[in-house]
Amino acid sequence: MKKYIDILKRTTMFCGISQNDIDAMTTCLNTSFKDFKKGEYIFRQGEYIDHFCVLISGSVHIQSDDYWGNRSIISEVRVAEMFGESYAVSGSSAVMIDAVATSDSTVAFFNVKKLMTVCPHACGFHNAVIQNLLIALTHKNQSLMQKLTHISKRTTREKLISYLSNQAKLFGSNSFSIPFNRQQLADFLSVDRSAMSNELCKMRDDGLIIFDRNNFTLL
Amino acid sequence: MKKYIDILKRTTMFCGISQNDIDAMTTCLNTSFKDFKKGEYIFRQGEYIDHFCVLISGSVHIQSDDYWGNRSIISEVRVAEMFGESYAVSGSSAVMIDAVATSDSTVAFFNVKKLMTVCPHACGFHNAVIQNLLIALTHKNQSLMQKLTHISKRTTREKLISYLSNQAKLFGSNSFSIPFNRQQLADFLSVDRSAMSNELCKMRDDGLIIFDRNNFTLL
DNA sequence: ATAAGTCTGTTGTTTTTACAACAAAAGGGA
DNA sequence: TCCCTTTTGTTGTAAAAACAACAGACTTAT
User: Fold this and answer.
1) Cα(B111)–Cα(B49) distance, rounded to whole angstroms?
2) Looking at the predicted structure, is the pLDDT value of residue A216 above 80?
3) What's the CA gap between B89 and B26, in Å, rounded?
4) Least CA distance to B140: which residue of chain A?
5) What Å value separates CA B56 and C1' D3?
6) Residue nearest to nucleotide C25 (CA to C1')
7) A161 CA, C4 C1': Å apart
8) In the prediction, which pLDDT does A66 show?
9) Which nucleotides of D are covered by protein (CB under 7 A)?
10) What is the pLDDT of residue B114?
11) Which helix (H) or strand (E) holds A62?
12) CATH number belonging to domain B150-218
């Protein structure tokens, strides 16, 4: 538990909460920690969950495979970020996406009902955490909308420009690395990998970008 | 004010709040109401807002026009639904979408700072509303993800099937009407209108659906 | 070090979409 | 009612993407 505190302190949901209160919270919310090997699922489409998750280490993809096996990567979860909360809070609806570890990972699980109901120990920080959760959710909403603006673009080149320039902005530099390989980037932008690879090279030939593996520079 | 109470009672954010408390809330949160003509903007990309909005009557589209004038309709707001809250809560970031009235509408504005800070009158319902807001946001998140699954589909036909079958599910019947005309549906699904219109007719010829204007039936 | 597996780039073909232009149908005032 | 505007359907062409197949580079494990 102790070794996870440093990560939890960095999360939006525990922003402004003292280390002691975070400690109290983890017992109050029945917090558990679990390790996942690369490729293992944290939860799957169709399941019902009543805990929300925070990524302690590793990396996780939120994705969805359709009937024909086409994969769509909805978002990439980074360390200290939360996931699964939408389904945990409204616990009555089945999860419609998969959460899969893309590298060996550790995940913290928090009981959302215990958070939302009045604490018998009258923990004063419940409300603070709920407010933080609210803020975290608005950020999530914004990044979902951001993603929508990327894949709403009509051509692969426009999608790439939209995504890459957004990454540059987030990274604060025109040189940055992305958390996807080519197949994953294609699944994220909802395009064909080889066509996208082809388009990336054309953009390089046109003098728009340079890249090497996951490292990109916008020119 | 009185005439709006019936709508406010139906919103997720005031779910379980008594009418008297809603009354108190509207004064406590500096609530204002404003009318918009069809085509008028409630807010625009680039603005900063510190109030979140609830649609009292009419209809509103959340949309984004890019540099080249391509319109993307992100979502359709219905009466009693909330919008703009993501930007109001994290008030420091500029709005990156437009909210436009698609018919004559009335909108309620709530001051989000007053909601989030401790009320000098110690309104007991602040926390209840914040919890409701949390739930509303998770629903919103889910519908954004739902929309992502639609437009992640590769072909226009798949996008239409994904959207229409979801509408049928929401409506609880294989006959339903949609809140978009053809151009709006195309902007929502990020495809070309004429190509989509063409595909709809092919689907009808293939015996998948029948339709008349906005009324659809899945076969 | 080597072999097996993965990732990336490349090419040609087929399918699909975007675009443009127009006709028909529906709706809204004067 | 008639005219004007908006909406929807239709068609042909050009552009783009999906798909399939493969070669070379890079990783990883033994």
Assistant:
1) 10
2) yes
3) 18
4) A141
5) 36
6) B213
7) 36
8) 77
9) 7-12, 16-22, 27
10) 86
11) strand A51-65
12) 1.10.10.10
